[in-house]
């Protein structure tokens, strides 16, 4: 089967799916969901259209092998394309200097983004090099993971999904435009924060001092605290408490260990203090969790 659609125009793309391939459409506050007819396969996509760019998140499977074609040539309408799959691979027909859009679209779980190519003043060779390096960028992959972890079943989900794609796009444009040395310095900092988080995760049930974590990851305490909070959305001590409380709850529900044994295991010798923290976190006492 062939799927022929105007790839670089959001309205034409949407109308083509509706009129030529009988997709059902449903408008949300900020987007349109397009659902595949059952005789063609299963799945849907959610399309976001802005003044100068558009993007969509799609997950579908056609019953038969399907090849996508577009009457648009790569770079038409002054647009640059990005294709992103669930494994975090990012590619671009424009940056790779391809002439036409032709993809196997039988089984897709991905994101497509179209932005004005005038944003990028760098030559394609340098953009291609940066594109290849981005596959190894941890923060880029983490931002993509939040996108693929977000459902798009209703209006509230679509707002969250849009914000996460825009957050990634902002980071992505900054990466492609940034000075390589500046970006590498930022990446090195992000790697150290990830190292700090891994260290905290491994030792969360022990007594941890900031200076100990600082020495381990190679950052001063001020940079560590700020970077850790930016990365996890929690200060270090609150992140440790959250980790301990979630572990305690899992043990209460999945094991027969006593409250005292669990309290000792996660690092609280004072059971009263443990119970207070647990109640503050979950709205109930540990002893009430099994009732």
Automatic annotation (TrEMBL):
Coiled coil: none annotated. It comes from the Bacteria. The keyword Cell inner membrane does not apply. GO terms for molecular function: DNA-binding transcription factor activity; sequence-specific DNA binding. The keyword Transcription regulation applies. It holds the Pfam family HTH_18. SUPFAM superfamilies: Homeodomain-like (SSF46689). Residues 194-291 form the HTH araC/xylS-type domain. Gene3D superfamilies: Homeodomain-like. Keywords: DNA-binding, Transcription, Transcription regulation. This is AraC-type DNA-binding protein.
């Amino acid at each position: 089967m062939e799927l022929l659609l105007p790839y670089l125009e959001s309205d034409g793309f949407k109308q083509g799916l509706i009129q030529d391939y009988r997709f059902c459409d449903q408008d949300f506050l900020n987007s349109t969901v397009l659902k595949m007819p059952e005789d063609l396969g299963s799945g849907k996509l959610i399309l976001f259209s802005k003044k100068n760019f558009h993007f969509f998140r799609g997950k579908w499977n056609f019953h038969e092998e399907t090849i996508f074609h577009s009457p648009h040539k790569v770079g038409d309408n002054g647009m640059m394309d990005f294709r992103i799959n669930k494994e975090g691979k990012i590619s671009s027909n424009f940056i790779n200097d391809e002439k036409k859009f032709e993809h196997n679209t039988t089984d897709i779980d991905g994101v497509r983004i179209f932005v004005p190519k005038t944003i990028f003043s760098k030559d394609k060779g340098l953009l291609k090099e940066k594109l290849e390096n981005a596959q190894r960028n941890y923060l880029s992959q983490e931002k993509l993971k939040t996108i693929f972890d977000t459902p798009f079943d209703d209006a509230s989900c679509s707002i969250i999904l849009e914000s996460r794609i825009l957050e990634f796009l902002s980071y992505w444009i900054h990466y492609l435009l940034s000075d390589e040395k500046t970006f590498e310095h930022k990446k090195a900092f992000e790697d150290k924060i990830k190292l700090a988080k891994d260290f905290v995760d491994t030792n969360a049930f022990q007594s941890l001092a900031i200076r100990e974590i600082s020495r381990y990851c190679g950052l001063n305490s001020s940079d560590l605290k700020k970077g850790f909070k930016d990365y996890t959305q929690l200060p270090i001590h609150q992140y440790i408490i959250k980790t301990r409380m979630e572990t305690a709850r899992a043990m209460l529900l999945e094991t027969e260990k006593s409250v005292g044994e669990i309290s000792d295991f996660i690092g609280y010798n004072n059971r009263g203090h443990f119970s207070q923290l647990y109640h503050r976190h979950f709205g109930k006492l540990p002893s009430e969790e099994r009732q």
